[in-house]
Specification:
Elements lengths: L24 E13 L5 E14 L2 E14 L2 E16 L4 E12 L4 E17 L3 E16 L5 E19 L2 E12 L2 E16 L4 E12 L9 E12 L1
Antiparallel strand pairs: 1-2, 1-12, 2-3, 3-4, 4-5, 5-6, 6-7, 7-8, 8-9, 9-10, 10-11, 11-12
Length: 240
Amino acid sequence: MGAPGPVQASIVNVLQPQVGDPEEGWAVQGRVGLGLEAGNEEKQKFSVLAGARRVLGAHQTLVKGSLDRATNFGETSTDRSFVHLRHRVAFTEEWAGFGFAQLEHNGFRALKVRDLFGLGIQRSLWKARRSEAAIATAVMSEHELLLLDEEVLPPRLRSSNYFMLAVDLVDGLTLGSTTFFQPRLADFTDWRLLEDLTLNVSLGERLSWSVSCKMEMDSRPPTDVNPWDVVVKTGLGWSY
């Protein structure tokens, strides 16, 4: 068995399960979240997520980025950001191929940069009036540069697999679920698991409110780091 990694692994989910195909052309969206706590703890939280998508025939291009900051009694407890680029090509109604690249920073976990590059294939399981689902598998290469000593870790190959489900519960209320499983190809006992549940409420043509729960598990966490993590977020979103 390999040694635990020096930083806590994380899965960045940029997928947004939805019912129906996206419209042709450009679409821009964003979400802002704020949080304050006082009393026994003094926490301030700020998060922003923004992205743009272009659909042209069988081709879809997605660019998305986020920034998360949090302090507790003046000390930084969260310092995380990422940018993700993805291109998808539909071969048939059921099959599509995709490629992606990603840069991630997590200062609180001593991660200066993590970069990912991958290629994969997706299959639609079903498309109904109020629900649809898909599965996908990909191979990705990850590289990490640490903050403390500028150490560059050797690249690792992982399999990235996901199941995506979207359900329109009622008009204007959508439940989305994305489940990722990412084992390391050289050692399948080194794996990451993510379940991302999001409830999205439409507040009109351009505005929406959402609440999400992300549950993540790492089979090889660093020393003194829990193998599982749960994050609940809520925020106001806009699209154009």
